From TrEMBL:
Residues 521-605 form the Saposin B-type domain. Residues 193-446 form the Protein kinase domain. This is Scaffold protein ILK. It catalyses: N-(octadecanoyl)-sphing-4-enine-1-phosphocholine + H2O = N-octadecanoylsphing-4-enine + phosphocholine + H(+); 1,2-dihexadecanoyl-sn-glycero-3-phosphocholine + H2O = 1,2-dihexadecanoyl-sn-glycerol + phosphocholine + H(+); a 1,2-diacyl-sn-glycero-3-phosphocholine + H2O = phosphocholine + a 1,2-diacyl-sn-glycerol + H(+); a sphingomyelin + H2O = phosphocholine + an N-acylsphing-4-enine + H(+).
Length: 1069
């Protein structure tokens, strides 16, 4: 195989991947000219290789011998996509090479106009001079110079020339590739080593600064008594395992030898100019480690440990502490492999006991869970970072070991430490090793901490310590209050300040049709806090999980949240995932209840308010939409959502029962014939039989042809207490294949993931959760079944996080979002709710690329954004505002109703700019006719707006089809799905643009006849009573609110006290 530089130049992705998988290969090494693999991949435009290198930890701002960064090379060769990737990964657009040239200088000189525009948009300065007094504008052609000047002025840049200044003054270091030969020689000739200065000496050996092959190194000379042939053999076998070059947060052993005349084992490693983390924190260096840098160090360490924990076998005898963490020239923390102990080094001796887990001090190494013990050590390290203190500095090693292992000695948190950092430490220092998280679970949390850090972002926590209202016992109130407001030792609670309690929420009678038999939202706010506090205390004090689960089941029964057998089955189903999410969560009970019940139950602001990053590209001028010319082509699109097929549906069974779902074989038989389950479906809390779903598809196939199909999920029935993965996958497979069978191979279907696809329902762990608890079992099957419809690149992101993008036609792109990552009901978001899977940031990247190419975008998803978590909803609304000229239609389901939600400009909240169409369900649940939607969209021609021009709703009228004329007891044999209404005709509109919907809402207010018609159509033609007064006002709030906080403001403005927001979410659908 050629060397890695050749493979990167030629774009051989397979060879590069194999090379990277070898831990002895250093992806940040340089060739003879200082070019790193990333330099070559960027220079030659090898986008796939660039992605791979960045993902594996390549240094973005690394410089070659001429001080060129990868961004210099990508810009000069016009690789626009790679420039965008580097900028997104924090490449510096104003870095200069040895001639003082920035990437913009190169882009202008080589006539890379688009790249030059992108660089200016990303902050590149147009008037900075190189060594020869030339600015980028001087390098460009006249037309480009004018274009960049205008763009720079719009962005507020000064047009005054900035003289060249040497930026690498004394004390500042360049980020260079590492010597490419250092990782190739495991064996070293002692005579080639030059020992310059002794750094340290202790009973285990000496530490020297030296040089080898022209590079600065650290030489560690081990002191070993009675050096024998066996020890020499062990040394030669063990030190190669420490040569781990493939991760940026691991500092490898470069090589080893034995020093004459009396043999001493020697290992060498890279010289780190800033020394160890212990040195920086405690020994008076000039470096300042603020809170942001502390989180960065913690993230580096956690990332390195996450990688080490993937190795099989693991690195033996590596005891994590701050003396073992080295700080590189670019302030990157790296775990030193040179500090791992060899098997012959004082077996049984406890190194650095202040950082060691109690079980590691009590048991033999082979009897402990190394991964859990490392997590304890990380918690102490985190404590050290935020307190700047040496743990147990006043005690000897012997005293520390005895007190930690036998007397319960733990680090004490001083006042003023962030409650969230405290809770992360508490989580990592759980007394039960089995309940500590894995490093790959806390890396995303630390990433979000780093991304959202701005001064006191973690000190914004309030409202955590409110005494509970109502009739909660005095003892429990005391326990809750003390738990939130006292501080003892790590593992206990964190300091905070009490605030007054928010008012309780109750349900609105007007929305009682949404009520489901089992719903955790039936609990009150005080009860939610009590339950979560009991759970929190129990799970963090080594109580048996079985006892906790049994107690929750009993509480469900005694509080009448559901029937007894439903309580027991749903407790068993949810137990493992929910308890695991709760153990890994950083939420206090008040926060958890705010997340799950609503903001009136407390304040939830962990990582709030988080923001996605928008490109610095100015928003294009907005052109109001106009109708297409008469006779222009239209696309006819079938829309299916919320099928909810019930495998146990039985015609003639009881339509009324105690369970959350009826019309099933275990629902019993009706005592009153009018309330029995109909053949085609039932007006009750029932889902559909398979023959009704198949009849829909047969009718849809006859009503074709269809240009394409949108299908936004929710396949299984509402028997959420008794579902299995096997059942969910079976239903996914059956419905997917039925759609493919009836609509044919020439119709492409674009699906989205619903919240009922998983089991437990709503359980969608983010991608950082691996193994059996992840969603791989579901996403992989989706990818397999949907492969006939989706390209491989879409299937790749579908397998990763349940979302994807695909080009439908030239000029029209679809984005399918996994809206479960915004849902309050997804209890995994208690672990981390900040842009799970980075889905919104990915969406921004897709939209910007579409804007650049002039594409229009449709977005599909299951849950409407107005029903999402507040921060997620706000960010999505912000994205729709920024890309209003690109996002021209949004399609959702979930509510089972025929409705919509509006989007307005953020500046005034008066100019309508978008509509989220919410289509009616296929299922009857609850008390509805089965239905589906057809959209008419501006068609496939040059200059098409791709806007929704009209839509139709079709229903299966159960009153008619369950009772054949002339034979009332017999159903229709082959019923027809009939047109309920066409939107433009029903509401007297000429188009369905956002301004039309805004006008229609005004008509709803002024003309009650039109509103009552909407109310009737919203229920698919089956409604028992009109919607008046409070009901009407509430619904208008819902329709106007494409953003959750707008729903709440409208709610409070009209005096509902938060009841509307909660009622709008109160459903298991």
């Amino acid at each position: 195989m050629d060397d890695i530089f050749t493979q990167c130049r030629e774009g051989n992705s397979v060879a590069v991947r194999l090379w990277l998988d070898n831990t002895e290969n250093d992806l940040n090494l340089g060739d003879d000219h200082g070019f790193s693999p990333l330099h070559w991949a960027c220079r030659e435009g090898r986008s796939g290789v660039v992605d791979m290198l960045i993902m594996r930890g390549a240094r973005i701002n690394v410089m070659n011998r001429g001080d060129d960064t990868p961004l210099h090379l990508a810009a000069s060769h016009g690789h626009r996509d790679i420039v965008a990737k580097l900028i997104q990964c924090k490449a510096d657009p104003n870095t200069v090479n040895e001639h003082g040239n920035t990437p913009l200088h190169y882009a202008c000189f080589w006539g890379q106009d688009e790249v030059a525009e992108d660089l200016v948009t990303s902050g590149a300065q147009v008037c900075v001079c190189n060594r020869y007094g030339q600015t980028p504008l001087d390098k460009g052609k006249p037309h480009l110079r004018q274009l960049l000047e205008e763009k720079a002025e719009k962005m507020g840049q000064s047009m005054t020339k900035v003289p060249y200044k040497e930026t690498f003054w004394k004390g500042t270091m360049r980020t260079r590739p590492r010597n490419g030969t250092l990782n190739k020689q495991a064996g070293i000739d002692y005579k080639q080593l030059s020992l310059l200065a002794k750094i340290n000496e202790n009973q285990s050996g000496e530490l020297w600064q030296g040089r080898w092959q022209g590079d600065e190194i650290v030489v560690k000379v081990l002191q070993v008594r009675d050096w024998t042939t066996r020890k020499s053999r062990d040394f030669n076998e063990e030190h190669p395992k420490l040569r781990i070059f493939s991760h940026p947060n691991i500092l490898p052993v470069l090589g080893a030898c034995q020093s004459p005349p009396s043999p001493h084992p020697i290992i060498i490693t890279h010289y780190m100019p800033y020394g160890s983390l212990f040195n920086i924190l405690h020994q008076g260096t000039t470096l300042v480690v603020d809170q942001s840098q502390a989180v960065k160090f913690a993230l580096d360490i956690a990332s390195g440990m996450a990688f080490l924990h993937t190795l099989e076998p693991m690195v033996s005898r590596l005891y994590l502490n701050s003396k073992q963490i080295m700080i590189d020239e670019d302030m990157t923390a790296r775990i030193s492999m040179a500090d791992a102990k060899f098997s012959f080094q004082c077996p049984g001796r406890m190194y650095s006991p202040a950082w060691m887990a109690p079980e590691a001090l009590q048991k033999r190494p082979e009897d402990i869970n190394r991964r859990s013990a490392d997590m304890w050590s990380f918690a102490v390290l985190l404590w050290e970072l935020v307190t700047r203190e040496v743990p147990f500095a006043d005690l000897s090693h012997m005293e520390i070991g005895m007190k930690v292992s036998l007397e319960g000695l733990r680090p004490t948190i001083p006042p003023g430490i962030s409650p969230h950092i405290c809770k992360l430490m508490r989580l990592c220092m759980n007394e039960d090793p089995a309940k500590r998280p894995k490093f790959d679970m806390i890396v995303p949390i630390l990433e979000k901490m780093q991304d959202n850090w701005s001064g006191t972002v973690f000190d914004l926590l309030t409202g955590l310590c409110s005494p509970l209202p109502g009739k909660t016992s005095t003892a429990l109130q005391s326990a809750l209050f003390d738990r939130g407001c006292q501080q003892t030792v790590l593992g206990g609670p964190c300091t905070c300040s009490p605030t007054s309690e928010q008012p309780r929420l109750v349900f609105m009678n007007q929305f009682s049709f949404l009520k489901v038999g089992f719903n955790w939202r039936n609990i009150t706010c005080p009860l939610c806090k009590a339950i979560f506090t009991i759970l929190d205390i129990a799970l963090l004090n080594d109580s048996n999980e079985e006892r906790v689960a049994r107690a929750v089941g009993e509480a469900c029964i005694r509080l009448h949240l559901a029937d007894e057998h439903v309580c027991r089955e749903i407790t068993e189903l949810f137990r493992d995932d929910f308890i695991r999410a709760l153990q890994q969560s950083l939420l206090w009970p008040t926060e958890a209840c705010s997340l799950l019940v609503g903001p009136s139950c407390g304040k939830f602001d962990i990582y709030a308010a988080w923001n996605i990053t928008l490109p610095k590209v100015p928003k294009p001028p907005v052109t109001p939409p106009s109708p297409p010319k008469p006779g222009s082509p239209q696309s006819r699109v079938l829309f299916l959502t919320d099928v909810h097929w019930d495998q146990e549906y039985v015609s003639g069974s009881a339509a009324d029962c105690k369970d959350p779902l009826c019309c099933r074989k275990d629902s019993g038989y009706p005592s009153w014939r009018r309330r029995e389950a109909g053949y085609w479906g039932t007006y009750s809390k029932c889902d559909l039989p398979l023959w009704t779903v198949e009849n829909l598809l047969e009718n849809a196939a006859r009503d074709g042809p269809w240009d394409w199909v949108y299908w936004t999920g929710d396949i299984p029935a509402h028997n959420v207490w008794s579902q299995t993965r096997k059942q969910q996958l079976s239903e996914l497979t059956v419905i997917s294949r039925l759609i493919h069978k009836h609509l044919g191979p020439n119709v492409t279907v674009y699906p989205a993931v619903g919240n009922h696809e998983s089991t437990p329902v709503n359980s969608f762990p983010p991608p950082f959760v691996h193994g059996n608890r992840s969603c791989a079992w579901l996403y992989d099957t989706m990818a397999e079944e949907w492969a006939p419809w989706l390209p491989e690149q879409a299937l790749k992101t579908l397998r990763y996080g349940g979302f994807y993008t695909v080009e439908i036609q030239p000029g029209l792109r679809l984005v399918s979002l996994n809206m479960n990552f915004c849902a309050r009901e997804n209890f995994w978001l208690m672990v981390n709710s900040t842009d799970p899977a980075n889905q919104l940031q990915w969406l921004v990247h897709i939209l910007q690329a579409s804007e650049d190419k002039g594409e229009k975008v449709h977005i599909i998803g299951h849950i409407p954004p107005g029903l999402c978590l507040g921060s997620w909803s706000w960010n999505y609304y912000h994205i729709v505002n920024r890309y209003e000229s690109t996002i021209i239609a949004q399609f959702f389901g979930h509510t089972h109703m025929d409705e919509f939600q509006m989007f307005y400009d953020e500046a005034t909240m008066t100019r309508p700019l978008g509509v989220a169409f919410i289509a009616p369900s296929v299922t009857t649940y609850i008390n509805l006719n089965p239905g589906f939607r057809v959209y008419y969209i501006d068609g496939n021609y040059q200059g098409s707006s791709r806007l929704v021009l009209d839509h139709e709703t079709y229903i299966l009228n159960l009153t008619e089809v369950n009772h054949r004329p002339g034979a009332p007891s017999s159903p229709e044999q082959n019923p027809k799905w009939t047109l309920l209404y066409r939107a433009t005709e029903a509401y007297g509109l000429t188009s369905l643009f956002p301004s039309d919907y805004d006008g229609m809402m005004r008509t709803f207010i002024s003309d009650d006849r039109v509103f009552q018609k909407f109310w009737y159509l919203r229920h698919k033609g089956h409604v028992s009573e009109p919607c008046k007064e409070t009901c009407k006002t509430s619904l208008l709030c819902f329709l106007r609110s494409g953003r959750y906080d707008e729903l709440e403001q409208c709610d409070l403005y009209y005096g509902f006290g938060g009841k509307l927001a909660r009622a709008a979410r109160k459903t298991l659908c």
